[in-house]
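Notes from the 1:1 (GR / supervisor)

We went over the backlog. Supervisor wanted to see one worked example end to end before approving the batch request, so GR pasted a single chain during the call. The sequence is below; no edits were made to it. Supervisor asked that the structure be written out right there so they could see what the output format looks like.
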Amino acid sequence: MTGVYNLNNGVKISELYKDLDKEQIETIEKASKGGFTAAELKSLEEDGIDTSLIKKNSTKETDTKNATKTTTDVNDKVEELKEKYLKTAYSSGDPYKSSNPELKALNELLDDGVVLTLGKEGYSKTQIVDIISQIFPSLGISSKGDNGEYTRPIGHDEEAQKIFSRFSSHLVTATGTDSPEIKAAREKLASINNQILSNNQEMQVLEVTIEALQDEVEEQIKEAIDESEDIQDENKKKAKEAINTNLNDYTNSKGEMTYEQFKSNVSSDLKGIKTKSGRELSEVMCSLMDANYKMNLLKGYVSDLNELNMDNVELSADAEDAKIELDNLIEEAANSGNSDPDAECTDPIGFYNNTTRYDFFVDKDKNEDITNEKEFLGAEKGFEEVHALDTDDNGIVTASELEKANVKVIKTGTDGIQKILDPSEIFKNSNDGIKLDSYEQTNQDIGDGNKLIGTFSATVEGQNLSGYQTLDTNEWLDENYDFTDKDEGIGRFSLDSDEVVEAYNADEKINIFTLKNEELSADLDEAWSAYGFSENMSQSIIDSTNAQASKKGKAIESKFEEIAKKEEEIAQWSEEEMEADKEKWEKENNKEIEDEAKEEDNKNSTKANEEKTETDDIGKPSEEEILDAKRKQHELSFGG
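Structure output shown during the call:
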């Protein structure tokens, strides 16, 4: 079913959204007539409107318009889809070959996710099969009754077989009739796809990080070489002695001296020596050492990128194998007429009070609503779950015992409207509750493929009412309960989860980055040579700072992750929004940079900061790195 949110009495859209313009207010008010459906809320969200205000000020009900689809609904849908996909009178031919126009049109319909959408709109499995069979009569897809069974050809060529298999896959996804084997195969493929997506995202962040760092290193090297021409030989000699002496101490300290302390010592020894351009020599040397440090990070990042790239190659092969496995299982189910469409069942526990139904569920994710069928009390271990709630062992499960276990109640009236209640709103007296000794096991068919497997008594305000434990098909449950997973299109209601996600391939970028790193290493050696250092000076500092760099790399990388997130946000902005945000960001960021610089100066002036151990420093970016990352974020976000 589709959730409908009706605004509470007295709530006005204009008061909820005071910051929106008149046109936006009118759009929301128009959508509010008759209640907001999940689809309407999603549409508003896509327009950038925060719908949480609507949900907080609404009563959620069941959209009875979509609860059961009628023959008229099916016929109307057939005509609607015929107009879109049956554009011409198709010529005769082998209907089971991929060259057949109707089969091509079916493939287009599947590409558009129509079967999955029909499931979301509340059409049953039988109705979806009937719709497809009427649109494409020559294909031989037809229902075998009202229980979800259907016939479907295999296909006379490989491509045709894939199309028919896709139809079966979409059908089971749309109607929630996966067998346990198909479900496990689908979850396996989804797990691999999720890992590929995670790798793709991490690789893209690494690429941004590498490109930015390479630009920084290149600029630092260029500046150092330019400065070398203006520095007297005597000062170059002092720089060489200072770095060699402190590098010796740093290396021999076996980790007791941090890289930041090493750099600070060099800077202190060179303080006061000016270049002809007026720049401190210590700045030039520290900039070169930072370039060495960043070269080490770059090598690590390119190595990480390469590992993720190779992992994606393996994952893609695994995903293809998982897809073949899933397709084979779906094919087997289709060829057997899909004779067990209700393989997945759940057994809700509840009771009736006249014509009102009350069902218990455990709010596992604490969203104040029922997420999916797995949250029903009894879904996993049947009535044993109710026995486990009797903590005082008196044979009655009371409201307080239910609430301790975060159990809530779905109240369904004859009008189909559902409300979520706390047990204390129903079991108001101290003796009210579920009587455990009244449970009797039974096994009765109650229609729609469902069974009554047990009965019990529930006492409500002194009145004994009939309780039940049923074994219901997920298809029936989907038609009678408003699961939030269905509204959000996640879990077993997710759209088209059978396709293999495309793995990002970074081969070309890795080659480019590797060559660039080699060039930068050579240029860095040249820069050190300009100050009288040996060619292996770069490697010496790199080796000495390796452990420090690997630990601090994570902190630096997080800065670039912020950049990536910012880029994703601004991709959706208009030019006006970007300009407004840029001005706001510049004001806030300039102040933040100034505050951080002042704070860092204060820290450096205290004795406590001088006595900090290496462990305090590991993983924390320096002031310069923080400022660089912030400036880089600004440049990437707003084009410099």
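Supervisor's comment: The mean pLDDT is 77.
Batch request approved.
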